[in-house]
Structures are given as C-alpha cells and as structure tokens.
UniProtKB/TrEMBL annotation:
The organism's taxonomic lineage, starting at the top: Bacteria, Bacillati, Bacillota, Bacilli, Bacillales
SUPFAM superfamilies referenced in this protein's UniProt entry, alphabetically: HPr-like
Domain of life: Bacteria
UniProt-listed InterPro entries: HPr-like, HPr-like_sf
The protein's name: HPr domain-containing protein
Amino acid sequence: MSNNAAIVDISQIASRFRSSIVLQAENKYIDVKSILGLFTTLVSGHSYELHVHGPDADEAKAAMAEVFAKHNLAISIVAD
C-alpha cells in the first residue's frame, strides 16, 4: 500500500489549523504540515505520538485522529 494519499490528506488537513501539530516517531519530531517530513517518516505498522499545541488544538486533535484512522495509521494523541 502506498502512503502517498495518506500523506497528502494528513498534511492538507493539518494545514487548516493554526496549532502546531508534531508527529513523534521514536526520536524524530516531524511537522505534520510538511509533506516531505511525512514522506520520510510515515510507515504503516508503526505507532506514532502526536503533539498538538495552539488555539485550535481540540479541533486539530479530532481531525488528526480521524484522518490517521481513515488511513489505518496508529497514533496516540499526547495530552498536555
């Protein structure tokens, strides 16, 4: 399965929010709004942590949880 559709989808949805949305994969931190960053990091079967901070964080968390689930990618959203 190619992740290209997932990557474009995830970064487009992330870009709607003012909040900072950062994906933690082991010891790497990737800005979810960066398509290139996602290409080099996102692998299905891995589990990721998502850190969301900003004025619309609650909406961003909900949208991110939805889009990751839609593409069968496992994330846990880290509470502040």
